[in-house]
Amino acid sequence: MTAEVINGKELAKDLREEMKQEVTALKDEGITPHLTVVLVGDNPASKSYVSGKKKACEETGISSEIITMPATASEEELLEVIDKLNADDAVHGILVQLPLPEQIDEDRVIEAITPAKDVDGFHPINIGRMMTGKDTFLPCTPYGIVRMLKSRNIQIEGKHVVVLGRSNIVGKPVGQLLLNENATVTYCHSRTPDLAAFTKDADILVVAIGKAHVIGAEHIKEGAVVIDVGVNRIEDGSLTGDVDFEAAKEKASYITPVPQGVGPMTITMLLENTIKSAKGVLQY
């Protein structure tokens, strides 16, 4: 068996074409979806991510702005910027690029963004709505993973999902979203003994732990679906995932590559959340 590759870049392109039409229709009604991204400091990876988000907005017709602040900016200065954006009716989505400099409390910043503009889906109110199955802004990477599975009509209901990783950004929420789809979910992490005992029982394996090639063919059940969220830069400068792709694809039924897998879907779900905010369909 050689796995079928779920190409996130191709799926994202198709979804963005649909979004272009939605944005055009909203503009005809006098509404231009707008996303503001706040970047504190000059972290090269963060600058790259922010640039990618702006480009994606341009492709779909979404208005966007990048507010840059120095790495020395205080928490109070950042909160003042967020307050102004919260009050600006022309701004539909606010995203503060993480990580933040050490003098700034990330939790306080996330909670300062009004839930109605929290298109990252990180505010505790939106997380709570996700947990209880209510309509909300879903965290972008986990939401993108669910959309990738559904794009191939992969059955989630009744399947055993094993999630490697317990971050608030990916691990915890992706497990909850798949639980909401009636999967049986097991979480594994750095303190889990005999990891393979769990991963080899997974119908769907989601790997998000940030270690290159930590999962090989010996960890995977024949015919499993493997979703690789990890992005690791190795010695030759190339990017690779948490899964040994070449080995795993010989046992899996479906697998996501790195790059061009989950990453493009993350930004696409951010665009979808911004459009959703502009439509005003969520009530808080």
From TrEMBL:
* Catalysis: reaction(s): (6R)-5,10-methylene-5,6,7,8-tetrahydrofolate + NADP(+) = (6R)-5,10-methenyltetrahydrofolate + NADPH; (6R)-5,10-methenyltetrahydrofolate + H2O = (6R)-10-formyltetrahydrofolate + H(+)
Q: Which GO terms describe its cellular component?
A: cytosol
What keywords would UniProt list here? Amino-acid biosynthesis, Histidine biosynthesis, Hydrolase, Methionine biosynthesis, Multifunctional enzyme, NADP, One-carbon metabolism, Oxidoreductase, Purine biosynthesis
One GO term under biological process is: methionine biosynthetic process
Task: Name the Gene3D superfamilies for this protein.
Answer: Leucine Dehydrogenase, chain A, domain 1, NAD(P)-binding Rossmann-like Domain
**Molecular-function GO terms, alphabetical:** methenyltetrahydrofolate cyclohydrolase activity; methylenetetrahydrofolate dehydrogenase (NADP+) activity
Concerning Pfam families, the annotation shows: THF_DHG_CYH, THF_DHG_CYH_C
> Residues in domain Tetrahydrofolate dehydrogenase/cyclohydrolase NAD(P)-binding?
139-279
Q: Which residues form the Tetrahydrofolate dehydrogenase/cyclohydrolase catalytic domain?
A: 6-120
Residues annotated as binding NADP(+) are: G165, R166, S167, V231
What CDD domains does the record point to? Answer: NAD_bind_m-THF_DH_Cyclohyd
Q: Its Enzyme Commission number? A: 1.5.1.5, 3.5.4.9
Q: Annotated pathway, please?
A: One-carbon metabolism; tetrahydrofolate interconversion
The reply to whether DNA repair figures as a keyword in the UniProt entry is no
Described function: Catalyzes the oxidation of 5,10-methylenetetrahydrofolate to 5,10-methenyltetrahydrofolate and then the hydrolysis of 5,10-methenyltetrahydrofolate to 10-formyltetrahydrofolate.
Alphabetical list of PANTHER family matching this protein: C-1-TETRAHYDROFOLATE SYNTHASE, CYTOPLASMIC, C-1-TETRAHYDROFOLATE SYNTHASE, CYTOPLASMIC-RELATED
**Subunit architecture:** Homodimer.
| Recorded family membership | Belongs to the tetrahydrofolate dehydrogenase/cyclohydrolase family.
Q: What is this protein called?
A: Bifunctional protein FolD
